[in-house]
Structure formats: structure tokens, C-alpha cells
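User: Batch of two.

Assistant: Item 1 of 2:
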Amino acid sequence: MQIYWTKINKIIQETTEVRTYLLDCPQDFTWEEGSHTHFALDGFNTGDKPNRSLIRHMSISTLPHEKAIGITTRIKEHCSEFKTILRDLTVGNEVAIFKTHSNVPLKREGKNVYLLSSGVGIATFRPLVLDYFNRADNVNGIHSLNIQSSNEFLFTDVFVTAPDRKFTSMFVNNRIDYYEEVKNLTVDKDGLYYVVGSDEFLVQNIEVLRELGIKAQQIILDKHEQQLAEFLSVDLEN
């Protein structure tokens, strides 16, 4: 396993509780849209075993052409040891990244793509939207739906409805409006439905989507194959 140590280049305060840490790109580090990585703080590997309290599984919210590795995360006033340390880091501090992989690349199958997210989960989808804007081949269109109770919505410079690009974006601040809109979207029985958020959010969305006639194979989660089978309760090969 290769561990990349890199420096924080810039810290962006996206909202009251959400920050994006932009990291320098190591020379041979590559990734694709929808990627996640293991993001670790100094000291995580100093003992006989990795200190898991200093490691988090994070989505990368940027694309390689942006020349920075973006880690977007919520840091509340009362938070974990990891978030407390992260909150105090500044530009120039070193962090580690390793085991980078994408479970949710943009599928180009000539279908509509629906991006369903909760809160900071939209960070996972930012690179998919940018990739689509750069190259729309074999994607009919994209619709993004994000729920954020605080009304402090993220990446509103990217998530802006653009009819000429066949891209629509909607933000809502309550679950009633959110699930009503999900019902409207599922009129498309052939679309691809990406879902990112807490496990509870995933379970609720899967239940709604399945009840509305969306097949398990049309639901894309940021989970590895074994977890997918558990969430969707099906044999994905059938």
C-alpha cells in the first residue's frame, strides 16, 4: 500500500460548518470522478498498528484538472478527536491519503442520471457534474436533488440549473419536499439513481425507489460490492 503525504494548500470555509481542504497533488497520484480516499492525520501510523481514530474515509470533491485534491467535510462545534485535530490544521500542515478508489463513476449508458444527496454528501457528486460538463457523451442529462436542513447549500456555483446542458439542480430543506421530488423523478423508470448520504438516508431512499419501481441494478451507492448486496438485499448479478 502506498501512502502519499501531502500538504494542505488552501482551506475554504464553504458554510458555517463545512470546509474544503485543498491538498497538493503528489506527482504520481491519480483519481477519477466519484473517488473516495483514506484521509489520515499525522501520527496515524507511528505505532505497531494504524491509529484508526486518525483515519477517515472521505470523498474527493475535485477533478485532477483542478490541480488539487479536495476534501470537503462538516466540522461541528462538538466533534470527534479526528475533526478536532483537523479543525486546528492550517495551510502547510501535512496529511496522508491512501487506498483511493471510485465506486460511483459517471455511467455513460445513454440514460438520465439522478444524483440524490443529503448535506455534505453532495461533495461526492461535484466531480461527476464537472465531468459531465466537460464531456456529455452517452449521458442524456443529469438532475441533482440535495436536502440540507440548514439552508446553507453547497457548491451553488456548480449546482445551477443549465437547460442548454440538460442539467437541473434542486435544493430543499425538508424531507417532505425531498421525497415528493424523488417521486416525481422516478417517473423515469429507466434512469440511473445515485444516492449518497448517511446509511439511514441510503436505506430510506432505497426503500422509496424500490417501491416506485426502480430496480436494484439502477441504484448506485458509494459502497463496495459486499455492502451493496447488503443494502439492496439482492444478488446484483441477476
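Item 2 of 2:
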Amino acid sequence: MPYSKPDIAPEWMKVNEVAAVLDVDPRTVIRMVKRGELNVRAIEFGKAIRIHRGDWQNELDRRAAALVGA
């Protein structure tokens, strides 16, 4: 039986995925993480940075609530 990948989203997201949601350049996301403007856990794999998917969802929810409350 061939190995099949589960249909579960990986726990860590690529910077490009986050940048696409924010409609910004990936370098902007990296700067935002390093400045603490995104309240997410990020880890570095060599030159690549990954962002925790759960933290990212919480950040999106927080930003959405701020827009609704404004």
C-alpha cells in the first residue's frame, strides 16, 4: 500500500502563506515578526522562517475583532 499524506494542515506555515493573507511582501512579514508586530511563535530552519499556524489564526482573529470594534 503506497504512503498517502494526511489531509491535515501542517503545524508551521511558510512566510509566503502569511504574506499572501496580508497581501504584503514576505520580507515585510519577516520584519513584522522580528519587531514583534505579529503575536506569533516563529522558528528558523536555516534561512527559512516558519510561523505557528495556531498562533497565526489567533492573530487573525484578534485583528478581525479590532476591525469590528473600530
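Residues 21 and 60 are 10 Å apart (CA to CA).
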